[in-house]
Structures are given as C-alpha cells and as structure tokens.
Specification:
mainly alpha; rod-shaped; transmembrane helix; transmembrane; Membrane protein-like protein; membrane
C-alpha cells in the first residue's frame, strides 16, 4: 500500500486506479472485474474577459486668469460705396426755351436779303479811305480822290450811284479844306476844318451802310447823307 506522499503512488485522478483497493475493501464493480469509472472533472470555466474600463475624457484645463488675452481679429474693411455725383441744377437762364413758330403774315412782303453789288470791293476801299481821313490828316482822303478821278465808274446802277456819291464827297471836302486852311489867318479856318471833318465821316459811314444793304444812293449829287 502506498503511503501518502509516495512518488510512485498513482494519481488519484487516474481512471485505471481503483480507489477501493486503497482502503481495504472491494466494491461490487471490483468484484465483477469492472473498473470504477470516475467522472472526469469538468474543466474550470475560463474567466470572463474583464471589461476594459472606459476612458473618461481628459478634463479641460482651467483657463489661466493671468494668461495674456489674444487680441480680437480686426474686422474686414467694408468696401466704400461711391455714389454717382448728382448733376448740378441748371440755372433758368441757361435753359433754352422753345421758340414759337413765326406767325404767318398775311398781305405782307417777304423780307428779301440784300443783293450782292457787282464791283463793290473798290467802293468799300474808297469808303475806308474816307473814314481814315481825319486820323491821317487828310492823306487817305487825297489818295481816295485820286482813285475816283479820271476813270469811268462801274456799270451797275447801284455801284454807279455810290461812285458818283464818293466823287461828290471827296471834291467838296477838298475844296472846303483848302478854304479852311486859308481862313486860318482870320481865325475861322479851324471851325471850317472841324465841320468838314465831321461831314466827311458821316458821309462815309452812311455810304458804307447803304452799300452793305445793297441799296443805291438816293441823291448822289446832294449835300446830305446817302
């Protein structure tokens, strides 16, 4: 019989070992020659996997009261909106008022534009010399007298009347100026020369206006204006 602790003793868990023989008596199964069936021990249940503890979120750090505060972002500049300049008010005098149509004139002659006088360039030149007689002390009048003397006048009626009017004006002024120069000795010459100068300018101006209007001189040999 094996002692407890004997290394050669069979393991109690061995199914071929009959434990009844170890205690000094035989069981009915041993007498029949059957070995005792020992139930195999149930395997120990595996430990359930422990649930991994969920990680709690890390606590947020408390704000530091003495930490410098970041400056606030500058706002984006808004684009400047330019408005179209308002037009300045137009004064009333600058606004052109509509012109009313001319009324129809009944039983009246239409205005006829002045006719162009033929060979009028020479006539205007003589009138200009007459008007400059006073500033040139009679020199231009003497030139005009030479221009209208010794040559035939123009053929047109209007131009011929002005040509005769110029001859009469220049010859009369020349004779009166000579008489005034003689009367200077007795004190009347200055007055005569003044009257001749005024009469010469008035005759020349009236002749220019009449020629510009295309009209003939009413009395070319008279003493008054054209």
């Amino acid at each position: 019989m094996a002692e407890p602790g004997d290394p050669d003793a069979p393991k109690p868990t061995d199914p071929a070992v009959d434990h009844d023989d170890l205690i000094g008596f035989s069981s009915a199964a041993a007498l029949q020659g059957r070995s005792r069936i020992v139930a195999e021990p149930e395997p120990a249940p595996e430990p359930a996997p422990s649930a991994r503890p969920a990680r709690s979120p890390a606590p947020e750090p408390e704000p530091d009261l003495f930490a410098p505060v970041d400056p606030a972002p500058e706002p984006e500049p808004t684009p400047a909106v330019t408005t179209a300049p308002q037009p300045e008010p137009v004064p009333g005098w600058a606004i052109e008022s509509p012109r009313a149509p001319d009324p129809v004139r009944m039983n009246r002659h239409a205005v006829v534009p002045p006719k162009e006088v033929a060979n009028s360039t020479g006539l205007y030149a003589v009138y200009a010399l007459i008007l400059f007689a006073v500033p040139t002390l009679g020199v231009s009048a003497l030139i005009a007298l030479l221009a209208v003397t010794g040559r035939p006048g123009p053929s047109g009626a209007v131009a011929a009347s002005h040509f005769v009017f110029q001859q009469r004006t220049l010859w009369t002024a020349a004779v009166a100026a000579l008489l005034g120069a003689i009367l200077i000795a007795v004190g009347l010459g200055v007055f005569v020369l003044f009257v001749v100068a005024v009469w010469l300018i008035l005759r020349g101006a009236s002749g220019v206006l009449t020629l510009k209007a295309g009209r003939p001189v009413r009395d070319p040999r008279g003493w008054f204006l054209a």
